[in-house]
Design a protein that fits this description.
The protein is mainly α. It has one domain (12-162). 79% of the residues lie in helices and 0% in strands. The longest helix has 49 residues, at 14-62. The radius of gyration is 24 Å and the shape is rod-shaped. It starts with 13 loop residues before the first helix and ends with a helix. Keywords: Membrane, Transmembrane, Transmembrane helix.
Amino acid sequence: MSDEDGGEADWSSKRRQIAYQESRAALNAQQAALTQIDNKAIENVRITAILLGVFVSAVKISGFSFEPITGIIGGVALAISLGAGIFTYNETDPYLGLNQDYIDELIADEFTRSETWEKDLPELLAGFVDDNADDIEFNGAALTVAQTCLFVGVVLVALSAVI
């Protein structure tokens, strides 16, 4: 393949070329989506850590008292938010493309996975796309837990300060 689009002259089948191009485009889009989820997760962690610090400092410095049950539940929700955000960020492990063994087989012209690399490559990338889609779904759910717990924690801690 002579260019990013799969080098039209290098493919024996237009269908395989398009499958490769679409798979590669999907992988790139998924990488961007996972990066976005990671960025949101780390931002959630930062906000939660700052809020936990502010709440603990307010109690220690001013002697301000919170309603205990609501404050504790709110604090636990913030701690869960912190943990879920860190977990979401650390869990991301997308397939970015071909691994070294696959590339070595292609270079050595000792391709044994199927009849041709041209057939196998789009199939392999399609598998990567499926695996990444599962990761995006899981990480999205974990991020939702982190954000929901942040919201619930802030609301409960705020309520515990006024009741």
